[in-house]
Structure formats: structure tokens, C-alpha cells
Amino acid sequence: xxxxxxxxxxxxxxxxxxxxxxxxxxxxxxxxxxxxxxxxxxxxxxxxxxxxxxxxxxxxxxxxxxxxxxxxxxxxxxxxxxxxxxxxxxxxxxxxxxxxxxxxxxxxxxxxxxxxx
Amino acid sequence: xxxxxxxxxxxxxxxxxxxxxxxxxxxxxxxxxxxxxxxxxxxxxxxxxxxxxxxxxxxxxxxxxxxxxxxxxxxxxxxxxxxxxxxxxxxxxxxxxxxxxxxxxxxxx
Lengths: 117, 109
Description:
The complex is a heterodimer. Chain A is an all-beta fold. Helices cover 0% and strands 52% of the residues of chain A. Chain A has strands at residues 4-7, 10-13, 19-25, 32-38, 44-51, 57-58, 67-73, 76-81, 90-97, 106-108, 112-116. In chain A, a hairpin with a 5-residue loop joins strand 4 (32-38) and strand 5. By secondary structure, chain B is an all-beta fold. In chain B, 0% of the residues lie in helices and 58% in strands. The termini of chain B are far apart. The A-B interface holds A 1, 32, 34, 42-46, 49, 57, 93, 95, 97, 103-111, 113 and B 33, 40-45, 48, 87, 94-102.
């Protein structure tokens, strides 16, 4: 299957700072990537759809000015959590569709655990 | 709104068969996917049903009834390593996935 990586895997930051998370498709090109957030023992919630070369599409209730998404190339999307607060502490996961796959499934990155102190 | 309901927890013993149900109410439906997620890990794809019926992949099978807005994941010959959370997810427009509430499966010896 296709491989998606994320960096960093874990990050701890102080309240009020910004954190950037990278999502890369390693062996395929992804015109569309997705960003999810998962709180402990809960489901994955789609935050936004990242489109290469255009603006991201945010889900209802997700602040676009707080969660900045940049999809500058066909293999890289970044999520920046600006002015992070403790309530932003969560597991952030990205995914991408590989059109090589017959099911057109989404492949997920390993996730980034963000802790805001 | 959109909702996908699953049982919160299921327990079983090694070697047994377990079925995890998913009922959904969504706008836009292209198919139902199933994912496995171990604690702290990423979701991994298990199966996908676009049409009604049963899809079999090794020890795992998945079923879909679009008229009933219902599907299930069947796990056979359970192993300890199958202890994980399982999520159904509806594929909607623009390739989006909407995930279910998740089912925690606990397999005991």
C-alpha cells in the first residue's frame, strides 16, 4: 500500500506558541490530503481537506485562522496550530488517497500527538 | 446531520467470531469502509463495500445493506492481536470520510 508520513510524531509546546505538523505522501502524489483530530477514546473528526495549489476546505466549526493548512506540493501538506492552548492538545492525523489503489482508499499517517502546556 | 453508530465495546475470546455493527445516516453515500486502530497508532484500512453484499478478506468480512443503512464487520478466528478499536466510515462526496463512533474490541485468552 501507499505510505504517508508525519513529522513530528510528538510535540510539546507552551501555550500561545505555534506548532507546524508535516504530512508527506512518500511513494505517490496526492492532490488531496485530509487532516483529522482525535481526542482520547473518541473517533476521528475531519478538520479540513487540503487541496494542492488552492485553499483548504474546512469543516463546520473548525477555525481556519487557527488551523492553517498549506498544500504547496503534490507530496506535502502542513498543518499549523497557531496560538496553541491546552484544549488543542490532541492526536492529529493526516491521510491521502492513492489513486493506484483499486478501492481508492485513504492511507493514514502515523499521527502527531500534540501536548500544549 | 450525519451520524454513524457503533457499539462502544465488544468482548470475545480467542478463536471466537465477533460481529461489529454500524448503522449510518449521512448525506451522500459512495460506500462503507472499515478501519482498525491500535492504541496510539494510525487507522489501517480493512475493507470497503460500495455495493450490497458480503466482501471477504481473509479472517475479516464486511457486509453492507444500503437499503437498511447498515453494515457490519465480521472477525473470525479471533487472535489477541485483534484487540483494537474498529471504525466504520462512510465515503461521501469529495472523497471525504465520516467516521463512526468506534468499537473497542477486547480479546481475551
